Protein backbone atom coordinates (compact mmCIF):
# COMPACT_ATOMS: atom_id res chain seq x y z
CA UNK A 1 0.00 0.00 0.00
CA UNK A 2 1.45 3.32 -1.10
CA UNK A 3 1.08 6.28 1.26
CA UNK A 4 1.38 8.66 -1.72
CA UNK A 5 -1.65 7.18 -3.47
CA UNK A 6 -3.64 7.18 -0.24
CA UNK A 7 -2.65 10.82 0.32
CA UNK A 8 -3.77 11.58 -3.24
CA UNK A 9 -7.28 10.33 -2.43
CA UNK A 10 -7.33 12.47 0.73
CA UNK A 11 -6.07 15.46 -1.25
CA UNK A 12 -8.77 14.89 -3.88
CA UNK A 13 -11.44 14.93 -1.17
CA UNK A 14 -9.92 18.13 0.27
CA UNK A 15 -10.09 19.75 -3.16
CA UNK A 16 -13.72 18.71 -3.49
CA UNK A 17 -14.54 20.38 -0.16
CA UNK A 18 -12.46 23.45 -0.94
CA UNK A 19 -14.11 23.96 -4.31
CA UNK A 20 -17.70 23.73 -3.10
CA UNK A 21 -19.29 25.61 -0.21
CA UNK A 22 -22.29 23.32 -0.59
CA UNK A 23 -20.12 20.49 0.76
CA UNK A 24 -18.86 22.50 3.73
CA UNK A 25 -22.21 23.85 4.92
CA UNK A 26 -23.63 20.45 5.97
CA UNK A 27 -20.59 19.93 8.23
CA UNK A 28 -21.87 22.78 10.39
CA UNK A 29 -25.48 23.46 9.40
CA UNK A 30 -27.16 20.12 10.08
CA UNK A 31 -25.04 19.64 13.18
CA UNK A 32 -26.25 22.95 14.58
CA UNK A 33 -29.87 22.16 13.72
CA UNK A 34 -29.64 18.74 15.41
CA UNK A 35 -28.07 20.13 18.57
CA UNK A 36 -30.51 23.01 18.90
CA UNK A 37 -33.57 20.87 18.12
CA UNK A 38 -32.72 18.04 20.49
CA UNK A 39 -31.33 20.40 23.10
CA UNK A 40 -34.63 22.24 23.35
CA UNK A 41 -36.51 18.95 23.41
CA UNK A 42 -34.41 17.84 26.38
CA UNK A 43 -35.05 21.16 28.15
CA UNK A 44 -38.76 20.74 27.52
CA UNK A 45 -38.66 17.23 28.97
CA UNK A 46 -36.66 18.51 31.96
CA UNK A 47 -39.38 21.05 32.69
CA UNK A 48 -41.97 18.28 33.11
CA UNK A 49 -40.01 15.74 35.10
CA UNK A 50 -40.72 15.64 38.80
CA UNK A 51 -37.92 13.29 39.77
CA UNK A 52 -35.20 15.76 38.91
CA UNK A 53 -33.87 13.52 36.16
CA UNK A 54 -31.72 15.45 33.69
CA UNK A 55 -32.50 14.49 30.10
CA UNK A 56 -29.67 16.56 28.63
CA UNK A 57 -26.80 14.08 29.19
CA UNK A 58 -28.94 11.07 28.34
CA UNK A 59 -30.96 12.16 25.33
CA UNK A 60 -28.80 14.92 23.85
CA UNK A 61 -25.66 12.84 24.38
CA UNK A 62 -27.25 9.88 22.62
CA UNK A 63 -28.35 12.08 19.72
CA UNK A 64 -24.84 13.50 19.35
CA UNK A 65 -23.30 10.03 19.29
CA UNK A 66 -25.91 8.82 16.80
CA UNK A 67 -25.24 11.83 14.59
CA UNK A 68 -21.50 11.11 14.71
CA UNK A 69 -22.16 7.49 13.70
CA UNK A 70 -24.45 8.37 10.80
CA UNK A 71 -22.08 11.06 9.54
CA UNK A 72 -19.32 8.48 9.36
CA UNK A 73 -21.46 5.98 7.48
CA UNK A 74 -22.91 8.56 5.11
CA UNK A 75 -19.50 10.13 4.60
CA UNK A 76 -18.05 6.90 3.24
CA UNK A 77 -21.02 6.11 1.03
CA UNK A 78 -21.36 9.69 -0.24
CA UNK A 79 -17.67 9.90 -1.16
CA UNK A 80 -17.97 6.59 -3.00
CA UNK A 81 -21.23 7.58 -4.73
CA UNK A 82 -19.76 10.89 -5.87
CA UNK A 83 -17.16 8.94 -7.82
CA UNK A 84 -19.87 6.73 -9.29
CA UNK A 85 -22.25 9.59 -10.11
CA UNK A 86 -19.52 11.67 -11.76
CA UNK A 87 -18.47 8.61 -13.76
CA UNK A 88 -15.02 8.88 -12.24
CA UNK A 89 -15.05 5.45 -10.60
CA UNK A 90 -13.59 3.69 -13.65
CA UNK A 91 -10.96 6.41 -14.06
CA UNK A 92 -9.84 5.99 -10.46
CA UNK A 93 -9.36 2.26 -10.85
CA UNK A 94 -7.72 2.55 -14.27
CA UNK A 95 -4.74 3.85 -12.29
CA UNK A 96 -2.50 1.53 -10.26
CA UNK A 97 -4.57 2.44 -7.18
CA UNK A 98 -5.43 -0.50 -4.94
CA UNK A 99 -8.86 -0.88 -3.35
CA UNK A 100 -7.24 -0.74 0.09
CA UNK A 101 -5.57 2.56 -0.78
CA UNK A 102 -8.84 3.99 -2.06
CA UNK A 103 -10.77 2.92 1.05
CA UNK A 104 -8.00 4.14 3.37
CA UNK A 105 -7.96 7.52 1.63
CA UNK A 106 -11.73 7.83 1.92
CA UNK A 107 -11.65 6.83 5.59
CA UNK A 108 -8.91 9.34 6.38
CA UNK A 109 -10.82 12.13 4.67
CA UNK A 110 -14.00 11.14 6.50
CA UNK A 111 -12.11 11.18 9.81
CA UNK A 112 -11.36 14.89 9.61
CA UNK A 113 -14.83 15.85 8.38
CA UNK A 114 -16.47 13.80 11.14
CA UNK A 115 -14.15 15.25 13.75
CA UNK A 116 -15.05 18.76 12.61
CA UNK A 117 -18.72 17.89 12.97
CA UNK A 118 -18.16 16.28 16.37
CA UNK A 119 -16.23 19.28 17.69
CA UNK A 120 -18.95 21.67 16.46
CA UNK A 121 -21.60 19.48 18.12
CA UNK A 122 -19.70 19.38 21.40
CA UNK A 123 -19.07 23.12 21.46
CA UNK A 124 -22.74 23.90 20.73
CA UNK A 125 -24.03 21.35 23.24
CA UNK A 126 -21.67 22.64 25.91
CA UNK A 127 -22.35 26.30 25.23
CA UNK A 128 -26.11 26.18 24.75
CA UNK A 129 -27.24 23.33 26.96
CA UNK A 130 -24.42 22.63 29.41
CA UNK A 131 -23.68 19.13 28.14
CA UNK A 132 -20.17 18.09 29.11
CA UNK A 133 -18.80 14.97 27.50
CA UNK A 134 -16.13 14.88 30.20
CA UNK A 135 -18.87 13.73 32.56
CA UNK A 136 -19.06 10.44 30.69
CA UNK A 137 -15.51 9.59 31.74
CA UNK A 138 -12.59 7.97 29.98
CA UNK A 139 -14.73 5.10 28.71
CA UNK A 140 -16.08 7.50 26.11
CA UNK A 141 -12.81 7.25 24.14
CA UNK A 142 -13.03 3.52 23.35
CA UNK A 143 -16.76 3.87 22.80
CA UNK A 144 -16.19 6.63 20.22
CA UNK A 145 -13.51 4.47 18.59
CA UNK A 146 -15.88 1.50 18.32
CA UNK A 147 -18.64 3.77 17.06
CA UNK A 148 -16.18 5.09 14.49
CA UNK A 149 -15.23 1.57 13.33
CA UNK A 150 -18.85 0.49 13.12
CA UNK A 151 -19.83 3.57 11.10
CA UNK A 152 -16.96 3.07 8.67
CA UNK A 153 -17.72 -0.65 8.34
CA UNK A 154 -21.41 -0.02 7.64
CA UNK A 155 -20.50 2.65 5.08
CA UNK A 156 -18.19 0.23 3.27
CA UNK A 157 -20.83 -2.50 3.49
CA UNK A 158 -23.52 -0.21 2.05
CA UNK A 159 -21.18 0.75 -0.79
CA UNK A 160 -20.49 -2.92 -1.47
CA UNK A 161 -24.22 -3.69 -1.56
CA UNK A 162 -24.72 -0.94 -4.14
CA UNK A 163 -21.82 -2.28 -6.18
CA UNK A 164 -23.34 -5.76 -6.07
CA UNK A 165 -27.02 -4.91 -6.57
CA UNK A 166 -26.77 -1.78 -8.67
CA UNK A 167 -28.16 1.74 -8.34
CA UNK A 168 -31.55 0.48 -7.15
CA UNK A 169 -29.91 -0.36 -3.82
CA UNK A 170 -28.72 3.21 -3.13
CA UNK A 171 -31.57 3.67 -0.68
CA UNK A 172 -29.95 1.02 1.49
CA UNK A 173 -27.02 3.33 2.14
CA UNK A 174 -29.02 5.83 4.17
CA UNK A 175 -28.27 8.83 1.97
Give the number of helices: 6
How would you sum up the global shape?
elongated
Order of SSEs: HHHHHH
Number of strands: 0
- Uncertain segments are none
How many separate domains make up the residues?
A: 1
**How much of the residues is beta strand, in percent?**
under 5%
Helix % is: over 70%
Report the end-to-end length measured between terminal Cα atoms.
30 Å
Our Rg estimate from Cα atoms comes to 18 Å
Q: Main beta sheet: strand number and arrangement?
A: none
* SS-derived structural category: mainly alpha
Average pLDDT score? 83
List the helices and strands and how they pair.
Layout: H1 3-18, H2 21-48, H3 55-85, H4 89-93, H5 99-129, H6 140-165
Give your account of this protein's structure.
- The longest helix is centred in the middle third of the chain and has 31 residues, at 55-85.
- Helix 2 (21-48) packs antiparallel against helix 3 and helix 3 (55-85) runs parallel beside helix 6 (140-165).
- The two termini are 30 Å apart.
- The chain has one domain (3-173).
- The chain contains 6 helices and no strands.
- It has helices at 3-18, 21-48, 55-85, 89-93, 99-129, 140-165.
- It has 175 residues and is mainly α.
Amino acid sequence: MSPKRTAAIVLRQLYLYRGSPARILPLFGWVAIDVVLWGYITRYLNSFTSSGYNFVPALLGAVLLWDFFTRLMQGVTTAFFEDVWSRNFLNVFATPLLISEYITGLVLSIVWTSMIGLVVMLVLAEGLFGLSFLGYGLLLIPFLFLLFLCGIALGIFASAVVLRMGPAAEGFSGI
